[in-house]
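Put briefly, the fold is written as integer tokens. One such record reads:
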Amino acid sequence: MLMIDLKREATTPLYRQVYDELAHRIRAGELKQGSRLPSVRSLAQRLRVSLITIVQAYDALASEGLVHAAVGRGTFVGGAFAPSHFNDAKPGEAQAPTGETDWHTTLPVYLRAPRISAMQALLRPALRDHIISLAGGTPDPTLFPLRALGRLWRRTMAVSDPRFLQYGTPQGDHNLRAWIAAHCGSLGFSATPDEILITSGSQQAIDLVARTFVGAGDYVLVESPTFPTALDVFEGRGAKLLGVPMDADGMRVEITDILAERYRPRLVYTVPTAQNPTGVTMNEDRRRRLAALARRHNLLIVEDDTCSEFAYDQDAPPAIKAFDTGGHVLFVKSFSKTVIPGLRVGCVVARGIPLDRLMESKSVVDRFTSPLIQRTLWRYLSSRQYPRDLETARKTYRRRRDAALRALEVSIPPGVTWTHPAAGFNLWVNLPDGMSAIEAFEEGLKAGVACGLGDLFLPHTPPPSGLRVSFADKPESTIYEGIRRLGLALKDLLSRVPGKDREGEFVTSV
């Protein structure tokens, strides 16, 4: 049985310790060429670490040609074309190719996305016809304004000067920036078009912030759990992630303050409204205190607003940016969920030097976002149809949120709790002590339902143990059936894995 003695108090990340030990054993010949390594799940359970830790270790081994993955079979020692030996290259250095066809296995890779890769792999079974997927976190495509955008696209092409379709400016279309600046007033703060940078989606905005202001070894404070792509982005820059626990009112700012005092982080990343994956909305008092904290500790806050328009019970509180007096808050906005994801348009609202540096980064990364798409989006946002479409979508998603909550009340066994999403597309199911997220995920697949594996949303090794349930892109009847299946799976697990009841309030650990 493969065992590794992990030094959990060491500064070396756990995944690197796993990698170092396996790489040493492979090069020493203790692990023979062609031998099969344990599965990600089994090794994670054996070493009591997260799935992400093992995925990162295996990815690092694969990037140096020490192992290769065979789809549906597992991970094996040696390159994909079975090289006859290993040299003594140090970690991060490329090894000499052993044949004409396996050179690619020796390429060093400096940027990985372990959470995204793991999620894609785990959700492949959800594509089967008999599986109900509550894992997507995506809008309903039947609500997309296809005809309106098609009509406006043609109009933009017809009336625009051809020079409009030349290379654009990094900052983006002035008309769209003016609309966003006016919209900021409804979020509680004022902005000018010159304080807005258009990006290719909010994900690029987060990436621009990370590549501009975060370096290797810098600390970044994040909610726990949070958006897994953001975690991959920050870790891809070499950042050290510190998870801040949450409750029903959002990120616990008093703990954020303690961590900021101790670790001097570079920035804080938060999704205060429609938080992904919990659906929790941070209350106004905490937003005000978080802005004050940024001033006191002289750090940046990345406020990610994915869909505050879809607040169901009452209007969302003012943005954290509304309480920002020193330019510490970088407000990130996306139109993926409120219009269409395929447009890939988002923005950052900032000012002064941070905005200047972000524009420089944008000019390096992709130079500009499509002017044609920007102008078409502006025409749609400025039309009378947009608020009508938005209200239709809000009412639809609220009905589905309510259906999910009713189904949970009926189907989920005692000892399992969940969040009450005030906005957005998702909620978080808290699993009882003694039940791992991967067990619940796999048992759900057997019952015919797929959820988001909670471990992938965590910046650290579990706890908390949970699942993300997404409800926006399914009709009420499908939501009911999917949650019924999840309830059956959890009941079966509880009968085999005794656990303690959790409190109804959503809480995580640092």
